Amino acid sequence: MGEILQQLMDGSEINLAKSDLAHHRNNVHRYVATCAKALIDSIKDSDVHLSSDANHCYNYLCNLVADSGATINEETGRAIDAIWRDNSINKEFYLEYGLTSSARYFFDGINRIAAPNYTPTDADIIRSRRLHRGVFEYGFDIDGLTINFVDVGSQSSQRGKWIHQFSEVTAVLFVVDILCYDNYISEHNEMKDRLVLFDSVINSKWFPNNTIVLFLSNISEFRRKLARSPLRDHFPGFDGSKNPDQAAEYLVHQFKQMDRSLRNRLYTYTVDPYDASNIRLVAAAINEDLRRRSQA
Questions:
Q1: Alpha-carbon distance 255 to 110, whole Å?
Q2: Residue 226: how many CA atoms within 13 Å on its side-chain side?
Q3: Would you say the C-alpha torsion 211, 128, 65, 109 has a positive or negative sign?
Q4: C-alpha torsion angle, residues 221, 226, 228, 231 (rounded to 10)
Q5: Strands ordered across the beta sheet of 211-217
Q6: Is 154 labeled as ligand-binding?
Q7: Which residues are within 8 A (CB) of 290 and not within 5 positions of it... i.e. 6 or more apart?
Q8: CATH superfamily membership of 135-295
Q9: Strand, coil or helix: 230
Q10: C-alpha to C-alpha distances, 24 to 69, 132, 233, 259, nearest whole angstrom
Q11: For the residues of 26-91, what is the DSSP string, one character each?
């Protein structure tokens, strides 16, 4: 969700409160420390052979993580940077070992983030929100239309307590990382869990006529991932081999089938979170739909 929010922010005004920069800085540093631990654990589980300098930094971080977790400062930042930029860590490493795209974002900018005078950007604050608990609201101005975006992602497990409070919203944006099609938690396929959750949202009595917008995100990485992890291995009903277009269409269809209202209120898009042109097209579609409904 963080990447989607950042693209919606791009070129728009966002009203994020920054009154407590120290609080935001600590949140970012905590998130980066968690990502650093995930990177260390991934290297332990891989057959990666680091260079001598990077291996020295790896051992340094291992000791920090073993003690009390990495504190993000200039020294730690240099160690993370040396490992992340080592030739043995290729561009597919973070995907292969389950590191988040936000981890890549923070590692790419680790020297900025570890600097003593670091001030979090809007993008930093949004990406680090995954450690938070609560409901977050952001204000956007898109083509002259003010949109209040309420992010309830971290509260999805308790939606029964609050979902009725949003019955008057114009649209619901549901974001799914399409890469989770082969991920399992306690033997449960994550994509199938997302389908169950989507079913409960789109068919909720609280959203009988609301527009539902579905983003299946990370489509380019999905196309690459299929070569080594075919969709059919996890969804036996799919018979399109490794064809990425058919695989994406199959998953889109699984979500469309969840809508039992048949009121043509569901908009589905496969997008790349870092492709501004794709997200801007989607934002424009949402904006037009909101404008049409407001004038009805």
A1: 37
A2: 20
A3: positive
A4: 140
A5: 171-177, 211-217, 266-271
A6: yes
A7: 145, 147, 170, 171
A8: P-loop containing nucleotide triphosphate hydrolases (3.40.50.300)
A9: coil
A10: 19, 11, 42, 39
A11: HHHHHHHHHHHHHHHHHHHTS-----HHHHHHHHHHHHHHHHT----SHHHHHHHHHHHTSTTS-T
Residue with tokens 């938690």: 185
152 is in an annotated binding site: yes
What are the boundaries of each domain within the chain? 19-119, 135-295
Comparing C-alpha atoms, which of 127, 157, 234 is closest to residue 190? 234
pLDDT in tens, 68-127: 556 789 999 999 999 998 888 865 565 566 666 778 889 999 999 999 999 988 778 777
Type of residue numbered 75: E
Residue among 180, 253, 255, 250 nearest 212 (CA):
255
- Say which residue the tokens 């009903």 belong to: 237
Instruction: Summarize the chain as % helix, strand, coil (round to 5).
Output: 55, 15, 30
CATH class assigned to 19-119? mainly alpha
Place of tokens 């114009």: 170
- 155 labelled as ligand-binding? yes
**pLDDT < 70 positions in the chain:** 1-20, 66-70, 90-100, 129-162, 164-165, 263-264, 274-286, 288, 290-293, 296
